Amino acid sequence: MVALKEKQSTVSSPHILIMEDDLNVARGLKMVLDEDGYDVDLRDTGYGALDAMGQYQYDLLMADLRLPDIDGMQVIKKVRATNPSTGIIAMTGYATNDLAVDAMKLGARDFIAKPFTQEQIKTVIDEALAANLAEMEAMERLPQAKKGIISIQKQEVLKILNRTSEDKKFKNRLLKTGNKALDGYTLSLDAKTAIAAGNLKWITENVGELNQKQLMYVFQCLEQRGAL
């Protein structure tokens, strides 16, 4: 696996990638962020953004959802799986509650509707970067043993989701009894609750992107709860 390169900067400033096909919007946003001392790159396509994300480590991705080549949601999903430490803010001029929820489920930290003011976008970015920093500092403070437990839990969650696609009786018991069906697995209460509730946001943030088979249980769980 090729290590991502840190972007070179004369100051220690957050690195932000703006994925926006409207160059007037992108350049205006870059000008605002440059003035605040951020190190900003622009990409006007989804594939261009993914290529940049594959080469450099960014602190934040500003992701427009309507792009000329691929759906911005696909980019968010891919970035969350391959660059979990990068914060994501979804942007769109066609905002709806459902769209915002979908973006958050895929791993966006926040959602902002266009047009937005300078103060609005600065607030959203500052909050996202602060949350990212807090998470990284918390992880660094964890002892090695604790990090090992987190890794084991991730494997356990995936094992359970895989089992739901292969063992119908287990899946039905999990849907019916929730946490009780997870006795014997090395999981925290938060993890058990997230699996039982089909909490896709928690699962993707703590485990990563799921495949189609693993997602089937989550969607069935949400449908059963009337969340779909």
Question: Which percent range describes the beta-strand content?
Answer: 5-15%
H/E element sequence: EHEHEHEHEHHHHHH
> Please, how many helices?
10
Would you state the CATH class of the largest domain?
Answer: Alpha Beta
Mean pLDDT: 82
CATH-scheme architecture of the largest domain: 3-Layer(aba) Sandwich
Output the keywords.
single chain; about 230 residues; alpha/beta; Rossmann fold; 2 domains; 10 helices
What this model shows, in words?
With 228 residues, this protein is an alpha/beta fold. The protein has ten helices and five strands, in the order βαβαβαβαβαααααα. The chain has two domains: 15-141, Rossmann fold, CATH 3.40.50; 144-224, no CATH class. The chain is elongated, with a radius of gyration of 19 Å. The model is unreliable at 144-149 (pLDDT under 50).
Question: Helix and strand layout, with pairings?
Answer:
Elements: E1 15-19, H1 23-35, E2 39-43, H2 46-55, E3 60-64, H3 72-82, E4 87-92, H4 97-106, E5 110-113, H5 118-141, H6 144-166, H7 168-177, H8 189-197, H9 200-206, H10 212-224
Parallel strand pairs: 1-2, 1-3, 3-4, 4-5
Helix pairs in contact: 2-3, 6-7, 6-10
Question: What's a concise summary of this model?
Answer:
The protein is α/β, with parallel strands linked by helices and 228 residues long.
